[in-house]
Design goal:
The protein is built from four helices and six strands, in the order αβαβββαββα. The chain is of the alpha+beta class. It has a single domain, classed as Alpha-Beta Plaits.
Length: 195
């Protein structure tokens, strides 16, 4: 229960008060597919509405494909159905560490961000997969030890024809706490002055 509460607090802090990109190539609300959404699972939050935050400067963007999209979530929810019904270009995603994953201690979940009871509130939605193992190996230590925050947006949903599985291409946006930069500079200065 504490983990869920912590995740929700992090999501609210991250999304509501920080981060985002406004550079070219990002989808706008007008570019998004306006397919109907089922209300019970929550309307997807568009990445274009996430605001910049000076406390978490952008580090880099990473294009990748979500892994594990054909699996079921622990609650029995089918990820393929979630993707088909709810996932559209431009939807915001939040990346959540799963350090107790029995198969990969660096596991990073990819979860939808959805509107809450009112459109000015948002929350974590369903998991739709994982970050690739090789990429998670690079990103997990930054999240765990340096406070990096990872969000993403859906570039496109692929497949689905002739009973093929759906896939999701995303762009991960990596954000570093501003204090991280200052701490690194201070360490460098201390080393320089001690010699």
């Amino acid at each position: 229960m504490e983990v869920i509460v912590a995740l929700l607090i992090v999501a609210v802090i991250v999304i509501g008060y920080m981060i985002a990109k406004t550079k070219g190539g990002q989808p706008t609300t007008a570019q998004q597919t306006t397919a109907p959404r089922i209300a019970c699972s929550g309307k997807s939050y568009p990445f274009s509405e996430v605001a910049n935050d000076a406390n978490f400067p952008h580090v880099r963007s990473i294009h990748t494909k979500i892994r594990g999209v054909t699996k079921e979530n622990p609650d029995g929810a089918n990820r393929q159905q979630i993707i088909e019904q709810y996932c559209r270009r431009g939807d915001a995603l939040f990346l959540v560490r799963e350090p107790n994953n029995p198969f990969d201690p660096n596991a990073i979940q990819v979860r939808r961000i959805v509107y809450g009871d009112t459109e000015d509130k948002h929350r974590l939605g369903e998991q739709i997969g994982y970050v690739a193992r090789e990429l998670a190996q690079d990103l997990a230590p930054k999240m765990d030890h340096e406070g990096f925050v990872l969000m993403a947006w859906i570039m496109n949903v692929t497949g689905g024809e002739d009973d093929a599985s759906l896939g999701v291409n995303i762009q991960i946006e990596e954000y570093r706490p501003a204090k991280h930069r200052a701490t690194t500079r201070q360490k460098t200065r201390k080393k320089a002055t001690s010699h």
